[in-house]
Every structure is written in structure tokens, then in C-alpha cells.
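Deliverable D5.2: sample structural annotation.
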Amino acid sequence: MSKKIKPSKKIHSLEDARKLAKKRLPKMFFDFIDGAAGDEKLSELNSSALDQIRLEPKVLRNVEKRNLNKKIFGIDYDLPFGFAPMGMCNLTWPGADRMLANESIINNIPACVSMASTTSLEKMYEFTEGRSWLQLYIFQDEKFVMELLDRAKKTGYKTLVLTVDVPIQFRRAKDDKNGFTVPFKIGPKQFFDFATHPNWSISTLLYGIPKPMNYETSKSGNKFVRSESRGSTDWETLKRIRDAWTGKLVVKGVMSQEDSLKIKDEGADAIQVSNHGGRQLESATSAINALPLIREALGKEFPLIFDSGIRSGGDIVRALAFGADYVMIGRPLMYAIGADGAQGLRKIIEIIIGELSTTLGLVGLTDINEITSDIVAQKFFKDMKY
């Protein structure tokens, strides 16, 4: 059962949330949320590329009533966005997973549970009242992955998100500088960081030190090592996962037309266009620039989910106009929780929904499902038709 939460009075914008989270959290964990690969320019590019997309306002339309309901995989959700998979969320604030699950129920949207979640997949399915999707990586030891698939089936999961864009983890300078590793190693630097953020430290000690619970509850004895290689993942791996999983299969982290066509041929039910929020190949293009190319390659009917760089309700509208069927968001949620816990999360979601509904009306539409590339200012993208 969901719990009603009052929105934070401290937050009036995403930047407010980011600044508050930076003050409230240990530097190590704020930088883990905020950071990206290499020089971090790709993360900035993801957002700036979305911002460069200009929409065309329309006038003298009756837009008093607006519908934001969106269907994907035959399920009706109340909003066109859900929660992206994020590992170790309870590092942001104790109980973050429960906060996300609560908002999943309140808003009737999917919450994708990371393989590295600080709450087990079984508990998250219970907490979201069945709205969870499960995200997996493939490691060299596929027995553990198959064990998780079996657990997911028994629990009732219907959608699996297979992340394929991290065969090798790109260097993240802030994590290196802060000594952020999983399993954790606490030295003088980390101890000082925790000591200077007593609210977080005391709350975390009282709640319990976060652990990757899908590993902790595994019968195989596998331990989560963040730097472990996934380099052996290939097309045969995808075939084995497709054969083993009878539910909906989303392949996440796709930026190539060529790859998207082959993934479709291999039987995936959807593709998630993503550059991992700018946390992998630093020289990649922005995810939003890849989206219309992949839509063009796959045609209008194949389901496309999008993430990377979404910071507002307007960004969600832009992604839908560029060919996405559904959108997932991540970092804004962590900023909000880091800033003011459940109340911060409630406020940011309210802001995003408000921006989304307002943008829809200002481009002359009353239904989120009516969005096409026609709302994009044609002088910027003359040839787009999706």
C-alpha cells in the first residue's frame, strides 16, 4: 500500500535538488550520482542536445484537459516515464528503494530494479505491487544470471532489461579520486567524508549498511565486484537469455542502427536507446541524436524506450517527438532523494509531471499519445517524420 508524502518545501527546481544533495551527502556518494565517464562532457552533451531541440508552440486549441496515460507492453501506465535501473540506491539515503517503490505505486509507473539493487528483486516486486521490471548484466559466470532469471520468473516479473553497453567499464575520475569501490574500502579519506556528513552517516548506521541484496540473497555465493569484466557478452549470450526468458525482453544501451536491427532479429521485444547517461564511451554521440536514426531503421511499430540526459518534463516530450515510445529517468530522482528524502522525490516528480503536462498543452495537444515529430520546429529538423 502506498504512503502519501508531502512535497518538499526546500526544492523548486532540479538544480535546487542537486545543490542540496551536494551539501547533504558525502562527497563520495554525491560524485557517484553526479559523475560520468572520462572528462564528463558526454553527460553534459546529453542534456545540451535535448535542450537544443526547439518545439513549435500552437495557439487557439482547447487544451484544458490533457491525458498523460501511456501504454507499453500492453500495460496502461499513468505517465509516459518510469524509473531507470540504478544500483545501490540506498547509498543516496536510507530507504531510497522504498521511496522509489512508493512513487511507482502512487503514479502507476514501472520501476526498473537494478541487478545491484540494495533491496532484493523479490522485495522490490512486493514494494511496487508488481510494477517492477528487472535489469541484468551478463558476467562470465552465467549461472548466477540464470539463477536471477529463475527468481524473477517465480516472483512474477514480466519484463527483463538486459544492459549490454558495459562490456568494459570506462574510467570515472571522480570515483577514482574519492576511492569509491564496491566492495567498499574505508580509509582516512572516506572516514573524514562520513564524519563531516553526520546526518547521512548516523541515518545509514541506524538503517543498516547498504549491500547489493540480489547477491547477498543468492544461493550461488557470488559477490558483487563493480569492476568485474562483462567483456565476454556477445550475440550468443543474447540468444541464451532470449531462450531462457519467456517474458518481455528489453535490450538496453543501444546506439547503433546496425546493432538495433540485429537485436530486433534476435527476438528482443524492445530496445532502450541509451549511452548509460554518459557513463560509458565518453566519445559517443548524445543518446537523443541516436534515437531518430534507430527509429528510422526499425520503423514506426517497434517499441523504443529512451534514457540519458532527461532532466525535465519538456525533455520527455522531446524524446517522444524524436521517436521514443517510453522514457526512463534516473539522476533527477537521486538528486531529489539526496536533497530531501521522500519529500524531495515527491516534489521533483510533481515538477516533472507539471512541466510535461504544460509542454503538451503549449504545443497544442491534449493527449501524450498524439506527440509526433510535427511538434518539432521544422526549421531545425525539416525531414523528420515520426
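Annotation notes: Residues 26 and 192 are 9 Å apart (CA to CA). The chain has 15 helices and ten strands.
The annotation will be released with the project's public dataset once the embargo ends.
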